[in-house]
Design a protein that fits this description.
Blueprint lengths: L7 H9 L4 H7 L4 H10 L12 E7 L3 E5 L5 E3 H10 L6 E5 L12 E5 H7 L11 H9 L4 H8 L3 H10 L3
Antiparallel strand pairs: 1-2, 2-3, 4-5
Helix pairs in contact: 1-3, 2-3, 7-8
Length: about 170
């Protein structure tokens, strides 16, 4: 079926019955933009799939559930649950899933703890690697890039750059 042959009234009726623009696009073997145009031709407004606050849950960052906050940005659900019942989360505090299941956001499974304690619990303590400053300076003055130096010492290029910046280089 050609794009111009897709009936606007039928598309509008199916959309009104609950089918999504992607489902209609697949049914008519076309793109969702064409379906949106047919809906506009029929005078049908689009359903929004996001809201400034709330809206559908989606998974981000290591499987954590998120939704949208008042400012339209991601809000991690476990942090939102905690804040709804206990108030704002103090700076430097992490919300920990007691049973380790990041999808289990029941209040009895959430615990507030200092970020340092949370990092230690998960084995993510930040340790400062002792980089030999003289070798860094020598490598850099010899023309090596931050990336090359970082690879040689097993650190990121930004760590090398930051360490050299600390001594004014």
């Amino acid at each position: 079926m050609r794009r111009n042959d897709i009936p606007s009234a039928v598309v509008a009726a199916r959309y009104g019955a609950g089918e999504s623009t992607l489902q209609l696009a697949a049914a008519y073997n076309t793109g969702s933009t064409t379906i949106t145009r047919r809906l506009n031709d029929a005078g049908v407004g689009r359903r929004h799939t996001w809201h400034k606050r709330g809206g559908p849950l989606h998974s981000i960052r290591q499987g954590y559930l998120a939704t949208y906050g008042r400012n339209g940005k991601h809000v991690l659900v476990h942090r939102g649950c905690w804040e709804a019942h206990h108030g704002p989360i103090p700076k430097g505090t992490a919300i920990h899933h007691v049973n380790g299941d990041v999808l289990d956001n029941r209040l009895e499974n959430l615990r507030a703890m200092p970020r340092s304690e949370h990092a230690a619990l998960h084995g993510k303590q930040r340790t400062r690697i002792a980089l030999p400053l003289a070798s860094l300076i020598e490598s850099r003055s010899g023309g090596a890039s931050y990336c090359e130096i970082g690879d040689a010492y097993g650190v990121s290029w930004s760590t090398v750059r930051r360490r050299l910046a600390e001594v004014g280089l």
